[in-house]
Amino acid sequence: MASPYFTGRRYIKGYGFGSTLLNWLRTNIVPLVKSGGKYLGSKLIEGGSKAAIDILQDDVKPSQAFKQRMNEIKYSDNTDLDTDDAIWPENDFLSTFFQNVEVQLNDVSTNIGPSHFPIESHISTLLNYGKGAKKGHLTARGHFTDEGAHNTKFTLSTNKIFDVYGKLNSPFLNQGKLLLNGVSLKVKLTRSQPSYYLRCTDTDNINKKPYIKILETYLLVRKVKLTPNTLFSIEEKLKTENVLYPIDRVECKMHTIASGITNISLDNIVIGTLPKKLLVCFQSNQVINGKYDADTFEFKPYSISSIGLYIDGNLFMKPFETLFSANDEQIPLVARSYLNLMLNTNGLDELGNGLSIKQFNENKAIFAFNLEHAFEDAFNRVNPKRTGTVSLKITFKTPLTEVVSCITLLNFTGLVEIDKTRQVLVQ
Predict the structure, then answer these.
(1) Which of 102, 192, 367, 394 fits 280 for a cystine, CB–CB 3.0-4.6 Å?
(2) d(Cα 271, Cα 269) in Å, to the nearest integer?
(3) Which residues of 337-370 are buried (b: 16+ CB within 10 A; e: fewer)?
(4) Which of 155, 51, 47 lies closest to 100 in space, CA to CA?
(5) Domains, the chain, ranges and CATH?
């Protein structure tokens, strides 16, 4: 009978020894809450901004790492909120609360390049899950499709204590292979500013600087108990081949655009290895680092009329030409940009991702560019790298009325390699 804990393909050919591990190691997976999880919670409760968990024994399944927290909203002077104080956690709370999630293997970081965990995690959730998931299991991590109803319910609650439970999004934690025993796994969590993960519109309450006090937290992982024969077979195989873990990593880069601008060229966004895909969105510069009375995940269109991508100075594809509409007097002309975003995510699956063209026009304007040779998903394949430079040219219908941050999410294929001495190489 198949293991109730196994998800996805049983094995993938073509990666050397690492791809055969799942044949040996997919039985006897059991939940485990390590003592390190308690250490993580105590550190956060004591006010530290970073924490780590160390797992040294047995093989573990990184893709089955879940975080649970019990939280309470307090003011900075540690006083309780009044029952009618309109303060609530930002949508997709498990994403907004952490500024950065870093995974280390034997003290070697698997994170490469600049990152912005909340935006990366939220956009991943927004584009890769359907309505059923967003109205179902994702609510456990604080993701709600009807934000207004959630905010009202939380504001009216006399008890400002709530809990969240969900998967940590990180390149290494998202891959499905099992981690070798004898390799330490550290997860370092850095908190965001309270103004980033809490929402409040009342000036008096904002001046009291509300924040989240963690009452309880732990990390749940799954491990595999191996037989002596299996351990011996692994060590024998390691004498001739290293373990390879292909990972899908994301870099986040931001470029500031001054107010009054009507067109701009962002040169050399990438110099060197070209990404597989590239997402572009825009946010107010005041919101990017947190603002109590602003939507953390509002990606406005800012009357963009054209956006084109260039590789080595050559136009990659016909630019997206759009007409965004702020009222009902004009029908938005954004069909190609919207459908292209769906083509490059899970939006064309039978269940879709629930993102409507109306939302795209209003506050979820995300432009997608696919730089792969084919549309076939190559997440579990190590393809030859291509190099060059990437630039963007953007035109606005009307001059910008505020300073805007252009956010680019670059999707690369990475590789983690572990040899018989448990030396870790990340590339």
Answers:
(1) 367
(2) 7
(3) bbebbbebbebeeeeebbbebeebbbebbbbbbb
(4) 51
(5) 16-244 (2.70.9.10), 246-415 (2.70.9.10)
Q: Please name the amino acid found at residue 15.
A: Y
How many whole angstroms separate alpha carbon 413 and alpha carbon 379?
Answer: 7
Kindly give the confidence (pLDDT) of every residue in the chain, 427 residues in length, as a single tens digit, with 9 standing for 90 and above: 333 322 333 333 333 333 333 333 333 322 222 333 333 333 333 333 444 444 444 667 677 777 788 899 999 999 988 888 889 999 999 999 999 999 999 999 998 878 889 999 999 999 988 888 889 999 999 998 888 888 888 888 878 899 999 988 888 888 888 888 888 888 888 899 999 999 998 999 999 999 999 998 888 887 888 888 988 898 899 999 999 999 888 999 999 999 999 999 999 999 999 999 999 999 999 998 889 999 999 999 999 999 999 999 999 999 999 999 988 788 999 999 999 999 888 657 777 788 899 999 999 999 999 998 655 554 455 567 788 999 999 999 999 999 999 999 999 988 999 999 999 999 8
